[in-house]
Amino acid sequence: MIKVGIYGASGYTGQELLKILVRHPEAEVVALTSRKYTGMPVSDVYPAFTGLTKQSYIDASADEVASRCDMVFLAVPHGQAMEVAPRFVQQGVKVVDLSADYRLRDVAVYEEWYRPHTSAEFLSQAIYGMPELYRSEIKDATLVANPGCYPTGAILGLAPALRGNVIDTASIIIDSKSGVSGAGREAQVGTLFCEVNEGFKAYKIGAHRHTPEIDQELSSLAGGEVSASFVPHLVPANRGILSTIYARLTADISYTDVLEMYQSFYGEEPFVRVYGDGMYPNIAYVKGSNYCDIGLVLDAKKRRVIIITAIDNLVKGAAGQAVQNMNLMCGFPEDMGLQLVSLFP
Amino acid sequence: MIKVGIYGASGYTGQELLKILVRHPEAEVVALTSRKYTGMPVSDVYPAFTGLTKQSYIDASADEVASRCDMVFLAVPHGQAMEVAPRFVQQGVKVVDLSADYRLRDVAVYEEWYRPHTSAEFLSQAIYGMPELYRSEIKDATLVANPGCYPTGAILGLAPALRGNVIDTASIIIDSKSGVSGAGREAQVGTLFCEVNEGFKAYKIGAHRHTPEIDQELSSLAGGEVSASFVPHLVPANRGILSTIYARLTADISYTDVLEMYQSFYGEEPFVRVYGDGMYPNIAYVKGSNYCDIGLVLDAKKRRVIIITAIDNLVKGAAGQAVQNMNLMCGFPEDMGLQLVSLFP
Amino acid sequence: MIKVGIYGASGYTGQELLKILVRHPEAEVVALTSRKYTGMPVSDVYPAFTGLTKQSYIDASADEVASRCDMVFLAVPHGQAMEVAPRFVQQGVKVVDLSADYRLRDVAVYEEWYRPHTSAEFLSQAIYGMPELYRSEIKDATLVANPGCYPTGAILGLAPALRGNVIDTASIIIDSKSGVSGAGREAQVGTLFCEVNEGFKAYKIGAHRHTPEIDQELSSLAGGEVSASFVPHLVPANRGILSTIYARLTADISYTDVLEMYQSFYGEEPFVRVYGDGMYPNIAYVKGSNYCDIGLVLDAKKRRVIIITAIDNLVKGAAGQAVQNMNLMCGFPEDMGLQLVSLFP
Amino acid sequence: MIKVGIYGASGYTGQELLKILVRHPEAEVVALTSRKYTGMPVSDVYPAFTGLTKQSYIDASADEVASRCDMVFLAVPHGQAMEVAPRFVQQGVKVVDLSADYRLRDVAVYEEWYRPHTSAEFLSQAIYGMPELYRSEIKDATLVANPGCYPTGAILGLAPALRGNVIDTASIIIDSKSGVSGAGREAQVGTLFCEVNEGFKAYKIGAHRHTPEIDQELSSLAGGEVSASFVPHLVPANRGILSTIYARLTADISYTDVLEMYQSFYGEEPFVRVYGDGMYPNIAYVKGSNYCDIGLVLDAKKRRVIIITAIDNLVKGAAGQAVQNMNLMCGFPEDMGLQLVSLFP
C-alpha cells in the first residue's frame, strides 16, 4: 500500500484520478490539493463521491505533500507543474505529471509553444508515459510525463505503421474529434452547454499545443522528422476522442498485412484493442475505460490507409494512463485498478 | 417602420430579439448595446448573424439610445433595467423590459426577492406583458414588463382553470423543467456542457425568483391569494420549458368539460395551442416558435387535473413575447414577424 | 464461484448485467441467450465487450440453461419470463426476474395491467427484490422479482415518510423523469435520437405499468391503500431517473426531523445516500453506480415535503439491484461486484 | 401562386419541405403523400404543425398528384423516385427529386452503387440542382436532381479551388461529420438515442453512396477525373454537416489569395458565406438556415489548404436547396421563403 497525493485535485482530471484510486487495492490517497476549494469536502464539489471519501481539499505546499506521499500525480495546469515537480523528485517522491511541462524533450520547442521553462534540467530524466512505447523506461522512472489526450490516440494509431515503415510521413493527416471534458472545468463561454450542444466545429487549427508533442513522438517512431497536419474538433459529448488518421502507403501491402502488423505490434497490450475488418471504433465503446480501440481501413485504389482510434480522454487520455504508469513505476500489475468496463450506453 | 433599440443585446435573449427583428417588416434595429462587446461586430460574437447584419455593439447611454429609437427592449439584468427604463419612458420611447424589475406590482415583494427598487414610482404604469391576459392594457402601455420564462408557461397553464374556479388553489404544484439557455450566457461552472449533459436535477427549490411572479398572477386570476409549490429543474437541452402542473379539482367536471374550458379560453389566441385527448406537449414541438402548447389530463379517480405546458423559453418565454407586446403597443398585427415554424427535429 | 446465466442477454439490461458480472469475483457467466443474435459474439453486438468476453449468444431452452447454472437472471420481456421462471425454480436454480411478471402479488392487478398470468401459482413464493425493504426474505428466496426502475426511486424516496406516518397518503404526487435507456433497445421511432434529443415530454400519464407496482409497495409501507399520482417524463440522456415527490405533511415536524428520519431509516444501507441540507440529487451523480441518492426539502409554509431521488435506471433500477439480490441470495457480501464509482462527467 | 405536392411527405425531409412551404408566399401545398400515415393529420404525426396545417397525408398515385400540382417534390427513397418522376415530367409537372435517382449522369455508376435504373432515359434531361454551379440550367429544367447532403458541403467547399486549379486532385480528403437526421426517420437500432448519444464514430468508409456523386461533380469542376477519399462520421446532434477538407496546394499562393478566390467565386451567392481569417464554421451557426458557411486555413509549411464547410443537412442539404431550385424553376426570387435565420443556441 503506497501513499498517494493528487496535486490539483479539483479539475476533471483530478477527480478522475480519485475515482480510480479510491478502488485501487494498493493505493491510499492521503492528500488532495485545491486552492479554489480549500477546506471543502470533495463530496460537496463532486457529489458523486458522497459516501466514497470523507476527505476535503487542502491547500498545501509541494514539500508538505511530498512529506506524506510515496507518489504524486500533478494535475495542475502547465507552468504550475514545473514549479513543483522538482520538489517532489528531490524528496524521492515518484511523480506522474499530467501537464505538458515535461513532455517535450526539446526545451526550445516547449518554450515556442508554451512559455519559459523553469526546470528544464529535469527534462532529461522525464520519461514520456506511454507504456506501449516506453514501458521499460517508465518502470525505472521517477518523473513521468503523462501524454496529452490527443497525442495518445494519434500516436497509438500511427506507431505500428511508422515502425513498419509503410507510410509516407509527409502525407499524415490527423483529424481528431474530442468530447468537451478535455477543455477542463474552468468557467468559460466557449464550453457552456448552449455553445457546444447541437454544434460541431474545428478549433485551433495549426495552433493546438498538442501538435509538437504528436510530431515529437511520430518523428521518434519514424526515425526522422515528421510533421503531421493535426486538426482538432469539438464533439457535443462529455468524453472521448476519435481520431481519423490518413496516410499514403509507400509499400504494396494488403489490408490483411496491415491488420497483422497492428495485431502483432499490440498483441500483448492490456489496453489496446485492434478491431477486425468492418468494425470501427466509437467513443461510446471506450467511455469510462482505459482502452484505446483501433480500426483499420485500406483504400487500395488510392493507396491510402485510414486508421481510426478511440479513447476516453479522461481515462486512457489522462487519469487511467497515469495510474497505468503508477502501476509500472511501483511494480504493481499494470492493469490494477484499471479493470474498468466501458459504460455503454 | 419604427426604429428599435436593444439595450443589452449580447446575451441569449438579446440575440434572439435581433433574430426576430431582422426579419420584422415594420421594425428597423438601430442600436445594439453591449458593454462587454463594445465595438465588435455582432457577427463576430454570434457568427450565425454573418450576412444578416453589419452592425456592431455600441456602448451608449440610455439617453443616447432614446434619442434614436421609437421603441426599446431592455435585455439587461434586473437592477440595471430599472436604472434606465425611466430615461426611456420620460423621452416618450416605448419600453418592453425583459428583466424582472417591473413585473411585481408590490415593491415590497420585489425588494424581498431581489433588491432595493430605484424607480418604484414607475411600477404603477407598468403592464404585465402577457397578451392573453392583458391585451388591451398592453396596447395603451408605454412600459411593459415582459413575463419571466417559467411564469409564462405556468400562468398560461393555470389561467383557464383558475378563472373557471374549478381547482383548489392550495393544492397547486408546478413541476417545471427548463433547457439551459434560461441560465444565460455568463461563464459559470454550473452551466458548462459537462456539468449539464447527461444530468438532470432540481434547483433553487422554494428560492427561485420566479416564484412571487407566478403567485402574483395566479392570485390575480383566482381573485384571492394563491401560493403554489414551484420546483424548477434543468433539462440537458438548449431551449424549452415543460411544466407539469397538478391541482385538485373542486368541481365535478369531466375531461371534456376541462378541454372545452381551455379551448374556449384560448380559442382566438394566435400563440396558444390546446392539444386534444392523448396528445401531450413536448418542448421539441415549440422549439424556435412563439407557441405555448397545452395538454390536459384528468385523473378522475383522484379528482386531480394535470396540465402540461411547453414553450420555447427564449421565444414565448422572452424575445417572442416581447415582440408580440411591441406589435400590440405599436398597432402592428400581433403575429407580425412571429410566424415562426418550430424547428423539428 | 457460482455459475450464472442471463436469459435474454442482448438488451440494455442484459448487457448491463454482463458488465457487472464479468468483474464479479464469485460469479462465472456460463450462458447468454438471445434469439435475435444467436451465434453472434457478444463483442460484435456490443463492441464495448471486446477483450472482455469471447462468449457468443446462444438460443437455449430454459431447461438447457438451468442444467448449467446455479443462478439465472431473466432479462426477457414480461410474459416471456413467467413462461420460463418455473422451469428454473423447479430445477433448483435461483432466479432473479427483471421483468414485471412476479412483482405484483395480486394476480388480478397483474392481469388488468399486463396480460393473463400463466404461472400465478409461483407468485406467492416470489419476493419483491428491494433489499432495503425485504432483505431477510430475499436471503431465503429462490425467486426474486426485481423491482421496476421507476418504482425503485419512488418507493425508496417515500419509504421512511410512510413508515414514519408523517404524510397524507392521498396527496402523493410522483413526477419522474427518465433517461432513454429505460425504453430498451428495440427499434422504434419514438426513441430515435432525433425524436428525443432537444425534447422533453410526459408520456403514458395514468397508464404506465409501473403505477400498480408503486401503489402496491406504498400501500404496504403505509399499512393501507395508497394510490399515488405518477407521471413519467423522458429526459434526453442515456441513463438515470430523477423523481420529484410531493406530499402533504400530517405531522408538525421540522426539516431536521425529516432528515433524521431518513438518515436513521437508511443509516446502514450500502446503496442509499441521504443528502444534507441544500444538496439535491442529480442523475449525473449516480450514473453507472448502484446508488439511490435522496434529497429532502420542507416547505413549512405549505406543509409539504418534497423528496427527490436519483438512480441509474440500468443499475440500481435494474442490473445492479439484481446483482445485489443475487449476492443476498447466495450469501456473498451485498456490495460484491457493485463497488461502482459514478462516471462523472 | 403555384400548387405544390410533396410525394413522400412524412420523413424528415418531407416535413422540412412542408415547414418551408407553409410560409412560402407563392406556393400552396395541395398534396402530401405517405403510405405509412395515410389518412392521418400531419399534426398528429408531427405535432409541431398543430395550427399550421389541417391537411392529412394521402395515398395517391403519381398521376393523381400530377393532376393537381404545378410542381412536385419527390421525397421518397431512391428507387421509388425513378418510378414516379417520369409520370410527373410527362404531364408537365416540374419535379425536384430529393433522392439519388437522377444525380449520377452515368447510369452504370448509378447501377454499381444503387440498383438497376428503370428510367435511365430521363437522366439526360435531369439537372444537378446546385444553384451555385448550375443556376442557368436549373431555370430551364423540368427535372432537377437535388444534391445529396454530404455532396453539397463537399462540392461547395472545393469548387473554387478546383476551378482555380490550385490543388492536387489526387490529394483530396473529405472528412465529414453529420448530425443524425441525415439517417432519416426509419426505426432502426443504429440511430436510437442511446446508440448515438455520447458516441462518435465513422461509418461506411469507402462505401457511402454519396461517394460517386462527390467524385462526379469534383471531376466536372476539375475538368478531369477526381477520386476523393470521403469518410463520413456521425455526430450526436440533430442537424448539420461539417466537412473538413484537406488538399495539397500545387500553386504558390498565400492565404489571402485563397480567401479572395473564394470570396470572388461566391461573391453574389445568397446562401454561401465565406468566413474571414481565424473564423471557422460550426453547424450550430447554420442550424435551420439555408446557408453553407466556408472557412479557410492555409498550412503554408506543409503546402496544404484546409477547407471547412458547414450546412444544415435538412435545409441547404435537402429541403432548403430544393425550394431554392423551385424558386429558380418558377421564376421566383431565389431566396423567397428561405430567409431563415439560424436558430442559435
Describe this structure in words.
4 copies of one chain form a homotetramer. Chain A is globular. Chain A has helices at 12-21, 42-45, 62-68, 81-90, 107-113, 131-140, 149-163, 193-196, 210-222, 255-265, 283-286, 315-330, and strands spanning 2-7, 27-33, 71-74, 94-97, 127-128, 143-145, 173-178, 201-202, 229-234, 241-248, 272-274, 292-299, 304-311. The longest helix of chain A has 16 residues, at 315-330. Helices cover 32% and strands 19% of the residues of chain A. Chain A has 12 helices and 13 strands. Chain A is of the alpha/beta class. Chain A folds into 2 domains: 2-125, Rossmann fold, CATH 3.40.50; 150-315, 2-Layer Sandwich (Dihydrodipicolinate Reductase, domain 2), CATH 3.30.360. In chain A, helix 7 (149-163) runs parallel beside helix 9. Chain A has a 7-stranded mixed sheet. The first copy, chain A, starts with a strand and ends in a 15-residue tail after the last helix. The model of chain A has no long low-confidence stretch (mean pLDDT 97). Chains in contact: A-B, A-C, A-D, B-C, B-D, C-D. At the C-D interface, helix 8 of C face helix 8 of D.
Main features:
homotetramer; 345 residues; alpha/beta; Rossmann fold; Dihydrodipicolinate Reductase, domain 2; seven-stranded mixed beta sheet; 12 helices; 32% helix; 19% strand
